[in-house]
Amino acid sequence: MRPILLTATCALALFLIDPGDGLLRVILDFDRWEVNNGSAFFNMEKFRVRKFNRTISVMNGTGVLLVDLDNRYSYGVHFARSAQGNNQFNAYPMKLAAKPFCDFINVYYREYQHLFLKNTNLPFVPPEGLCPFPNGTYWAKDLHLDSSVIPVVVPEGLWRCTTDLVDTHSDGLMKVIIDFNHWDLINGTDILSMESVRVRKYNRTMSVLNGTITFLVDLDNTYEYGFNFARSAQGNNQYHAYPMKIASKPICDFLATYYREFQEQFLKFSNLPHVPEEGLCPFPKGKYWVKDAYVDSSLIPIVIPEGYWKASPELRIVKTGELVATGSFYVKLTKELV
Questions:
Q1: Measured on CA atoms in the order 270, 273, 279, 280, is the torsion positive or negative?
Q2: Which among 111, 161, 228, 266 would be 20 to 30 A from 127, CA to CA?
Q3: Which of 115, 136, 167 is the last residue of a domain?
């Protein structure tokens, strides 16, 4: 299996204007840019889309290419369309077929490089080609696409262009790296106290949790507990709800299923109670400490995209649905080759 090292999506709006005399022109407007994974190869944290005038948005910022790209890698672009503009994208039978990277640059990019060179410092590709594509820092200033290159037969709508960079020489093994950022308790101080819990840097690549959590009440099946997740692709605190969650269950059921399966990950870092096969109910109030706690990233599926993530636990009263305690736990997720 060959790993996809860099996956990025660019959303843009496409619509048609009729200036009269039966002539149509295409208007292309950037919406946003997201990097799903590939932080070991490319950094686009300083890349932004902004409104330039009433009808056009542009791309600005700096991207850093961390490695030289040669024909070891293949690169391609495929497209999906949301006709209603409601982010329900359907794959479209149109793409730029994946090619070895230098071949892609020398064929597709070279033909249209004039669209990019006036607004960026991307290298010029001569007739004899360019290989490898050099690592370095590349800027874009008020970059927009000349919509005259878009065929008028391409239908209107919200489009998603996804670029894939694939290592063709790899054995396909990648690992996920999770780094704690911070924790916020939004409400629930009459249920628990986390004032002394802190995130600290443990080494160059990992942060850990330390401190004491105080549960002020016993928790039984009067309460239900679950997690929701949101992701910020750019790391700019603009979080979007992600279609993934740990469904709410009465808390004793939650402990007997979800927690019990993974409790070994917590027991070695804390004095949380062991949950036996017959379960534990209620979860007893008291003081529980954590020391240098971290999440074993091998538990995270490789398909989860990179970015900044917010995990929000919710404690509710089953009968009324009242939210009695919630918070947000922030982590950064990256991937690298093993």
A1: negative
A2: 161
A3: 167
The answer to whether the beta carbons of residues 45 and 39 sit under 8 Å apart is no
Model pLDDT for residues 242-267, shown as the tens digit of each residue: 888 999 999 999 999 989 988 888 88
Q: Is 236 in a helix, a strand, or coil?
A: coil
Judge contact between 328 and 183, C-beta under 8 A. Answer: yes
3-state secondary structure of 257: helix
Residues 281, 163, single domain; the answer is no
Contact 195, 212 (CB under 8 A): no
Q: Are 29 and 13 spatial neighbours (Cβ–Cβ below 8 Å)?
A: yes
Residue 162 lies in a domain: yes
| Residue 338 CB burial class (10 angstroms; 0-12, 13-18, ≥19) | exposed
Range of the domain at 94: 42-167
Among 143, 161, 158, 150, which Cα is nearest to 26's?
150
Number of domains in the chain: 2
Mean of all residue pLDDT scores within the chain = 84
pLDDT in tens, 115-157: 888 899 999 999 999 999 999 999 999 888 777 788 778 888 8
Per-residue CA distances from 228 to 187, 261, 309 (Å): 16, 19, 11
Same domain, yes or no: 116 and 83: yes
